[in-house]
Design a protein that fits this description.
Helix content is 39%, strand content 27%. It has 244 residues and is an alpha/beta fold. Helix 3 crosses helix 4, helix 3 packs parallel to helix 5 and helix 4 packs across helix 5. The structure holds adenosine-5'-triphosphate and magnesium ion (MG).
Length: 244
């Protein structure tokens, strides 16, 4: 396993009307390729802010972010946009599909910003990911003609179409009933089995349990990491074994 993401003492401060909010407070974190990370914590603790930093929608106020071996915390907005379009797939709670584009066109969209791809190649890729999320049969529909669960599966296809290094999902099941939420969670599990790296924000403990690693935030800080707990347990076991 190789490390995909490294945050070193990353902080993010917002200044609005002279009120300073430290949304992210010195978070250090490494995420390996192929991990499925669930991020939880109470409202306002900084989950979405952390996701937007990871997804290069924004840059840290201080600290260093390394993505796939490249320091990305000091890039300009345009440089970030370029990497984002190639390396990051986003899934949002509210689907964010474009209403006057068809399903197929929505999924093709991220690739149309990349130069050097023919329309045929883009369409083939979009069709392939739509099949993967079992939405190929709805490719000529418009978002309003789909159920919420179907819209979210299309949104997942759109996130996958550029073959991203990491999929970032902010409460992807938050607007779905339990059946559709289950379908999205199963899709994430399938992607994880196939090797995708995923970081999903969720309020739901049962959903978080299904990830391979659980992080918990409080007030801008990372307060729990199941990977470290595992380590602690292993250490305890090792000590037990050593002591006999
Ligand atoms: N663009 C911004 N400008 C000013 N303050 C912001 C901005 N974005 C977030 N914040 C503040 O940063 C803190 C963290 O917000 P964030 O949206 O990351 O929380 P969250 O954990 O995603 O919450 P929720 O579970 O409600 O979605 C909040 O206090 C919020 O008001
Ligand atoms: Mg949020």
């Amino acid at each position: 396993m190789s490390v995909l993401i490294t945050l070193e003492k990353v902080s993010k401060t917002f200044l609005t009307d002279e009120i300073e909010t430290r949304a992210i407070n010195e978070i250090s974190l490494a995420i390996e390729q192929g991990e499925y990370v669930a991020l939880s914590g109470q409202s306002g603790c900084g989950k979405s802010t952390l996701l937007s930093l990871l997804g290069l929608l924004d840059s840290p106020s201080t600290g260093q972010y390394t993505l796939a071996g490249k320091v990305v915390s000091t890039l300009t907005r345009n440089q970030r946009a370029e990497i984002r379009s190639k390396e990051i797939g986003f899934v949002f709670q509210s689907f964010n599909l474009i209403s006057d584009l068809t399903v197929l066109e929505n999924v093709m969209l991220p690739l149309t910003y990349q130069s050097g791809l023919t329309k045929k190649v883009i369409e083939d890729k979009a069709n392939a990911v739509l099949e993967k999320v079992q939405m190929g049969h709805r490719k000529n529909h418009f978002p309003s003609q789909l159920s919420g669960g179907q819209q979210q599966r299309v949104a997942v296809a759109r996130a996958l179409v550029n073959d991203p290094k990491i999929i970032l999902a902010d409460e992807p099941t938050g607007n779905l009933d339990s059946t559709n939420a289950e379908a999205v969670l199963q899709l994430f599990e399938q992607l994880h089995r196939e090797g995708a790296t995923i970081c999903m924000v969720t309020h739901d403990a049962a959903s978080a349990q299904r990830a391979s690693r659980r992080l918990e935030m409080f007030d801008g800080r990372l307060i729990k990491d199941s990977a470290n707990q595992q380590q602690t347990t292993n250490n305890v076991q090792a000590i037990d074994v050593a002591v006999g």
